[in-house]
Amino acid sequence: MAEHRTTYQLLADIYGYQPSHPWFYRRSGRVMPLRTILEHTKETGYLGYRAEDIRKASAGGNREAKLLELRDAVCVELKRDILRFREIRRKFMGLSRAGETDSDRYIDLCTDMSLKHNHIYNGFAHLISIDGLSFQPSLF
Q: In angstroms, rounded to a whole number, what is the distance separating the alpha carbons of residues 110 and 27?
C-alpha cells in the first residue's frame, strides 16, 4: 500500500521546494490558494508557534476570556496577513505574466510570498488549535 503524500510533498517532488520556501515560487510561478494552505495546516496537525501560549491559556483560570482574547489577536493578525498576501500575489502574478521573472523585484516577491505563506500557515494553526478546545465563545 502506498503512503499518503500531502499536496505540499507532491509539489516539493516537482519543484524541489514546498510553498514555505522562496524557491518554490521562483521555480513554479505558482501561488497557493488560501484554501490549500488551510487544508495543509489541518492535514499536518501543526499547532503553530503559539502552541504553548494556547496551552497555558486553556489550562489557567478565566480560561474562556483568555482564549477569546488570544483568538481575537490571532484573527487580527491573520486578516492583516491575508490582505498583504493578496497584495503580494497581485504584484507577483503581474510580473510573472509580463515575463519579468529574473528581475530583482520578482525575486523579492518570491521571498515575500513565502513569508506571508508561513504567517498564514501559523495563523490557521492557531485558530484550529483554539477552536479545537471546548469553550463557548460569547455571543455578546
A: 10
Among 79, 91, 75, 73, smallest CA distance to 25 is for: 91
Is position 71 within any domain? yes
Segments forming the whole domain that contains residue 58? 7-131
Residue 140 lies in a domain: no
Grid cell locating 64: 474562556
Quickly count: other Cβ atoms within 10 Å of residue 120's Cβ. 21
Q: Which amino acid is at 49?
A: Y
pTM: 0.89
Extract the C-alpha cell encoding 128: 484550529
Residue 138 burial by Cβ neighbours in a 10 Å radius (0-12, 13-18, 19+): exposed
* Structural domain count, the chain: 1
Joined together, the cell numbers standing for residue 102 give 529574473
Cα 130 from Cα 82, distance rounded (Å): 19
User: pLDDT grade, residue 140 (50/70/90)?
Assistant: very low
